[in-house]
C-alpha cells in the first residue's frame, strides 16, 4: 500500500499503539517472548548461546560487539512491521543492523534490547525497462555487484563491497561513480520504510517526498528501511587500482591534489580518487591513492587525470592499475581483501580545498599520532576526499537530500584500528585531540567547513547537527510527522540523532 500520510490519522494511530507512552521503559525480555510467540517455529528469534544467535551476532569491528537480549531476523517488510509495532507498544529498546560496518558501539547492536538483523531481507530485483534495481536492506554491496556485474550495469555503492547497503545509503554514500552521479543516496528513487506504528510506507519523488529527502542522510531516525530502489547505470569494464607513494614523495602530492580538485575533477567525471595516508605501527608513513576510471583505458597511455599519479613524475613505490571486466571488481577486491577489524574507530570533519592546509593536516596527523603508534595493532589512516560540484548539482535535481551541502568541500576522515579493548579510551582521546587541531588549522587558514559526513562519524560527534539550519528545520518537521513519539530517537538508543530528538537512554 503506497500511502500519503495524514498527520491526524497518524497521531491517532500512534496514540492507540503506544498506550504506555513511556519510551523510557526497557522490556526486552517481554518483547523477545512476544516475538517468539508470534514467529513460533520460524527460526526468526535467536537467544544467547544458540548457534543461530552466535552466527548473527557478528560485526565488522569487534569494538561494536554487544549482546542483545535476542536477535530477530525478519524475512519480509511485514515481519519488520510486526516487530516494530510490538516494540512501540511495549516500549522495548531495539537496534537495527544493516551490514554492521559502523564501528560505533551501540549503533547497530544493543546490550539492552532486541537486535533486528536485516540479513534475511536480501532480495535483488532488476528492472531493465526502468533502469532500476530494488535492493533488500540486508544486502551487502558484494551481493549487488555479483548480481549486476554480469549484466554490464551497476549502481552507486560501497567502494569496499563488504559494506552494508543500508547504513551506507542512509548516511549519503561516496561511490566510485559519484563524480558522474553524485551521492549514492541521491540515486535512490524509492524507499520502502516501516514506521514506528508498524505501517509500511513508500518515499519517492511522487509520494512522501519529505520522507525521501529525510532518509537521504537522516540515518535511522525515521523508520526501518526495508528496501531501496536505486538507479542502474551502464558501466562495465573499467580501469582501477592503487598507487603507493613513499614518505619522501608525500610533500609533492598536495599541490597536484589541489589542482585536481579545483581544475580537473568536474571535467573528468569518469575518474575517482581516494587520497589516503597510512601509518602502520612505527613504520614510515606512505600515501595510498586509489584510482578508478569508469571505462577501460589504454594502459600504455592512461588519461592524464590518472596518469599524473602513476607515471612516476612523483616517485612511487608501486602501482597496480589494471583494466577489470566488472564495475564492482575493485570494490569486491577490497571487500575480500580487508578482513573484519579487531577494533576500529572513525572520526571526521571537512575543509575547503587548500594545498597548504592539506600539507598542514598531514603534518598534524603525523605528529599527533606519534605517541600512540606503539599501541598493539596500530593502523592509522587519514583520507582527504573531494566532494565536488556534481554532488551538489545532483542533490538539487534529484528531489533533495538532508546533507545541506551547497558548495564543494573535502571530507577529512581518520580511521584507526587497534587490538585491545584496554586501549579504546586512549584511541578515542587521540582522535578527539587530532580533530581539534585539524579544525583549528582549518579555521586559522580561513578554510573551515562545518559538514561532518555521518558515515565516518564517531559516536561522540553530531553529524546531523552539521547539516545546517535549513536542513535541520525540514528534518525536524518530517520527524514530527513520521515519528511523532520519537520511537526511533528513544527506543533506538544508538545512532546519530536529530538535534532536539536525542535518545534519552544510554
Ligand atoms: C571498510 C569500510 C569501507 C567503507 N567504504 C565506504 C565507502 O566507500 N563510501 C562511503 O560512503 N562509506 C564507506 N564506509 C562507511 C559506511 O558507509 C558506513 O560504515 C555505513 O554505516 C555502513 O553501513 P552498514 O549497513 O554496513 O552499517 P550498520 O553498522 O549496519 O548501520 C549503520 C547505521 O545505520 C542504521 N541502519 C542500518 N540499516 C538500517 C535500516 N535498514 N533502516 C534504518 N537504519 C538502519 C544502524 O542502526 C546504524 O545506526 C566504509 C566503512 C568501512 C568499515
UniProtKB/TrEMBL annotation:
InterPro entries: BBE, FAD-bd_PCMH, FAD-bd_PCMH-like_sf, FAD-bd_PCMH_sub2, FAD-linked_Oxidoreductase, Oxid_FAD_bind_N
Keyword set includes Signal: yes
Keywords for this protein: FAD, Flavoprotein, Oxidoreductase, Signal
Signal sequence, start to end: 1-23
Keyword Signal tagged: yes
Residue intervals of the FAD-binding PCMH-type domain: 64-235
GO molecular function: FAD binding; oxidoreductase activity
Family: Belongs to the oxygen-dependent FAD-linked oxidoreductase family.
Protein name: FAD-binding PCMH-type domain-containing protein
Organism in which the protein naturally occurs: Orbilia blumenaviensis
Amino acid at each position: 500500500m503506497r500511502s500519503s500520510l495524514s498527520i491526524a490519522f497518524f497521531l491517532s494511530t500512534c496514540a492507540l499503539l503506544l498506550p504506555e507512552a513511556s519510551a523510557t521503559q526497557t522490556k526486552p525480555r517481554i518483547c523477545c517472548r512476544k516475538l517468539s510467540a508470534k514467529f513460533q517455529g520460524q527460526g526468526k528469534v535467536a537467544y544467547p548461546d544458540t548457534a543461530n544467535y552466535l552466527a548473527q551476532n557478528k560485526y565488522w569491528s569487534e569494538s561494536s560487539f554487544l549482546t542483545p537480549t535476542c536477535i530477530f531476523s525478519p524475512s519480509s517488510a511485514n515481519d519488520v512491521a510486526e516487530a516494530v509495532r510490538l516494540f512501540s507498544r511495549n516500549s522495548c529498546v531495539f537496534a537495527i543492523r544493516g551490514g554492521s560496518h559502523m564501528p560505533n558501539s551501540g549503533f547497530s547492536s544493543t546490550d539492552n534490547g532486541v537486535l533486528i538483523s536485516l540479513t534475511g531481507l536480501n532480495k535483488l530485483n532488476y528492472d531493465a525497462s526502468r533502469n532500476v534495481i530494488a535492493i533488500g536492506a540486508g544486502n551487502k554491496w558484494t551481493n549487488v555487484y555479483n548480481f549486476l556485474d554480469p549484466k554490464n550495469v551497476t549502481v552507486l555503492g560501497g567502494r569496499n563491497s563488504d559494506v552494508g547497503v543500508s547504513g551506507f545509503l542512509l548516511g549519503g554514500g561516496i561511490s566510485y561513480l559519484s563524480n558522474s552521479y553524485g551521492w549514492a543516496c541521491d540515486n535512490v528513487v524509492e524507499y520502502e520504510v516501516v514506521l514506528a506504528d508498524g505501517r509500511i510506507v513508500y518515499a519517492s519523488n511522487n509520494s512522501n517526498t519529505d520522507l525521501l529527502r529525510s532518509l537521504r542522510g537522516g540515518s535511522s531516525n525515521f523508520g526501518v528501511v526495508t528496501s531501496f530502489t536505486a538507479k542502474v547505470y551502464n558501466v562495465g569494464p573499467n580501469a582501477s587500482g592503487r598507487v603507493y607513494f613513499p614518505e619522501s614523495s608525500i610533500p609533492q602530492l598536495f599541490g597536484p591534489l589541489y589542482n585536481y580538485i579545483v581544475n580537473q575533477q568536474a571535467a573528468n567525471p569518469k575518474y575517482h580518487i581516494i587520497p589516503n595516508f597510512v601509518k602502520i605501527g612505527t613504520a614510515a608513513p606512505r600515501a595510498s591513492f586509489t584510482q578508478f576510471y569508469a571505462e577501460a583505458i589504454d594502459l600504455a597511455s592512461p588519461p592524464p587525470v590518472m596518469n599524473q599519479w602513476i607515471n612516476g613524475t612523483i616517485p612511487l613505490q608501486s602501482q597496480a592499475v589494471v583494466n577489470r571486466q566488472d564495475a564492482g571488481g575493485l570494490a569486491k577486491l577490497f571487500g575480500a581483501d580487508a578482513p573484519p577489524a579487531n577494533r576500529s574507530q572513525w572520526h571526521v570533519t571537512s575543509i575547503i580545498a587548500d594545498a597548504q592546509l592539506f600539507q598542514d593536516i598531514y603534518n598534524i596527523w603525523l605528529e599527533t599520532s606519534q605517541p600512540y603508534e606503539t599501541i598493539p595493532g596500530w593502523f592509522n589512516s587519514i583520507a582527504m576526499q573531494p566532494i565536488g560540484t556534481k554532488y551538489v548539482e545532483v542533490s538539487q535535481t534529484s528531489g533533495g537530500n538532508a546533507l545541506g551541502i551547497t558548495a564543494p568541500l573535502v571530507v577529512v576522515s581518520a580511521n584507526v584500528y587497534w587490538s585491545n579493548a584496554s586501549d579504546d579510551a586512549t584511541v578515542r582521546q587521540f582522535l578527539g585531540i587530532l580533530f581539534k587541531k585539524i579544525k583549528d588549522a582549518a579555521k586559522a587558514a580561513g578554510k573551515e567547513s562545518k559538514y561532518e559526513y555521518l558515515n565516518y562519524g564517531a559516536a561522540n560527534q553530531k553529524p546531523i547537527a552539521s547539516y545546517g539550519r535549513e536542513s535541520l528545520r525540514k528534518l525536524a518537521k518530517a520527524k514530527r510527522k513520521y515519528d511523532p513519539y520519537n520511537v526511533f530517537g528513544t527506543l533506538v538508543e544508538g545512532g546519530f540523532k536529530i538535534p532536539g530528538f536525542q535518545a534519552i537512554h544510554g
